[in-house]
Amino acid sequence: MTEIVALNEENVSAAAEISAKCLREAWSEQTLCAQLKNPNDHTFLACVDGKAAGFVSCWCVAGEAEINNICVLPEYRRRGLARAMFEKLEEVLPDAERWVLEVRESNSAAKALYESLGFAQVGLRKDFYDDPTENAVIMAR
Q1: Can you give the residue ranges of the N-acetyltransferase domain (predicted)?
Q2: Is residue 92 scored above 90 in pLDDT?
Q3: Catalytic one among 114, 115, 129, 134?
Q4: Which one, of 65, 68, 71, 83, lies nearest residue 14 by Cα?
Q5: C-alpha pair distances (Å), 4 with each of 29, 44, 64, 123, 130
Q6: What is the CATH T-level fold of the domain 2-96, as seen in this structure?
Q7: Fewer CB within 10 Å of terminal CB in the chain, N or C?
Q8: Is position 114 annotated as part of the catalytic site?
Q9: What residue spans define the domains of the chain?
């Protein structure tokens, strides 16, 4: 069973572990705890059969929801978790007028997911990422 729960002090370490396994520049437990104090932040943890499997972080300011981070452990990918986390964000942010995110140009799987969620490319940040140097595709809906 999949459950999407709000990030809190009790599960923040699980999100940090996921980040360390999924991201080149992982978010620390300290960074995630800081998110909890931001009134514009909406961070959720995806759990499958009670085990933390992914998380999403979004800030919503002045009607614009910006996805700051989304990651799913490799063994849980292609099971609908990222989509379920987006649906949770849409549920808690019904007044968001615009949604924005950025993604590595080479991350074709993520781009395909975002396109299936109605996102389209609206810009490009040249050489935005390091290790390796790569463009960031800006997507919005």
Answers
A1: 2-141
A2: yes
A3: 114
A4: 71
A5: 19, 6, 22, 30, 31
A6: Aminopeptidase (3.40.630)
A7: N
A8: yes
A9: 2-96, 100-141
List, for residues 9-67, the tens digit of each pLDDT value.
999 999 999 999 998 888 999 999 999 999 999 999 999 999 999 999 999 999 999 99
What is the amino acid identity at position 25?
A: E
Q: What is the pLDDT of residue 122?
A: 98
Distance of CA 51 to the CA centre of its chain: 18
Rounded mean pLDDT of the chain? Answer: 96
Spell 55-64 as b/e; 16+ CB within 10 A means b.
Answer: bbbbbbeeee
Catalytic residue among 3, 17, 91, 102: 102
**pTM of the complete model beyond 0.85:** yes
**Rounded distance between C-alpha atoms, residue 15 and residue 20, angstroms:** 9
